[in-house]
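user: can you give me the structure for this one chain? tokens are fine.
assistant: on it. calling the predictor now.
[tool input]
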Amino acid sequence: MATITISCDTCQMQDTPTCDDCVVTFLCERDTTQPIVLDLAEVRALRRLTSAGLVPELRHRRAH
């Protein structure tokens, strides 16, 4: 099954005001040094929740 790893260390939005409204922050208060790994079904569920306006969009953008 495909997964996506969300790590603040690899996000180009790290330490910006965008972090305040990040879905990861919205879902759980956590240690930002630990990545979150979502499987494809979880990513789809988040997209549906976002489309319904229930959670903010995933703003993680991999830094290059």
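assistant: here you go. The first helix runs from residue 23 to 27. Helices lie at 23-27, 40-51.
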